[in-house]
């Protein structure tokens, strides 16, 4: 089904998207189709989500994977690869989450400019967000942007570290677990179309 050509309000997008067979993201009135991700992208996202699920047992927090929507004010609705929320309002919602403390995006050549730029700028508008993590499955680069006491996000480059340390949920994940199933030398092949591709 084709995407609407005109810009939409947030509520119009939510009403429309909830009736579509595929997933779409929303950014400042424009609608973007979510296209299937590469195999290694899915492996890394699932590894992180599974590890977080285990480490959050017994805590008032829950990890979710990419099929769940995160709303940023009235400007944007995204499907993060992985996110964690500890907010009781989110833990009661069925469709749209608004208070994540941790968001993880797995990069690819086709998505990293958006993930580092406009998407990160939007996510910074979430008052609840404490950490934003970017993982490059090709290079095994891991960047953690952590909100400091002044409310600013500082980069903690954890590339090459033994574990991914997540202060927002008081958890550590061994890097071997993050990249389990991914060849150490990287995967050769054309980047997959897992970015939100705007339709003409």
Write up this protein.
20% of the residues lie in helices and 32% in strands. The chain is of the alpha+beta class. The strands form three sheets. The chain has a six-stranded mixed beta sheet with strand order 7-4-5-1-2-14. Strands 3-6-8-9-10-11 form a six-stranded mixed beta sheet. Strands 12-13 form a two-stranded antiparallel ribbon. The longest helix has 17 residues, at 39-55. The two termini are 13 Å apart. It comes from Metallibacterium scheffleri. This is Putative restriction endonuclease domain-containing protein. Residues 11-156 form the Putative restriction endonuclease domain.
Domain unit count: 2
Shape: globular
Sheet with most strands: 6 strands, mixed
CATH topology of the largest domain: tt1808, chain A
Order of helices and strands: HEEHEEEEEEHHEEEEEHE
Radius of gyration: 16 Å
């Amino acid at each position: 089904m084709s995407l609407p050509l005109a810009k939409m309000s947030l509520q119009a997008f939510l009403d429309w998207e909830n009736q579509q067979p595929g997933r779409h993201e929303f950014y400042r009135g424009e609608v973007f189709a979510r296209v299937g991700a590469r195999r290694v992208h899915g492996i890394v996202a699932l590894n992180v989500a599974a590890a977080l699920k285990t480490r959050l047992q017994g805590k008032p927090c829950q990890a979710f994977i990419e099929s769940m929507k995160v709303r940023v004010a009235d400007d944007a609705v995204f499907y993060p690869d992985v996110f964690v929320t500890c907010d009781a309002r989110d833990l009661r919602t069925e469709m749209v989450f608004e208070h994540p403390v941790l968001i993880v995006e797995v990069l690819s050549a086709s998505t990293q400019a958006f993930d580092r730029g406009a998407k990160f700028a939007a996510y910074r508008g979430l008052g609840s967000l404490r950490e934003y993590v970017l993982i490059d499955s090709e290079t095994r680069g891991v960047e953690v942007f952590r909100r400091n006491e002044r409310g600013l996000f500082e980069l903690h480059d954890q590339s090459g570290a033994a574990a991914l340390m997540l202060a927002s949920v008081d958890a550590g994940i061994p890097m071997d677990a993050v990249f389990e199933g991914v060849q150490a030398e990287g995967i050769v092949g054309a980047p997959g179309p897992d970015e939100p591709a705007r339709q003409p």
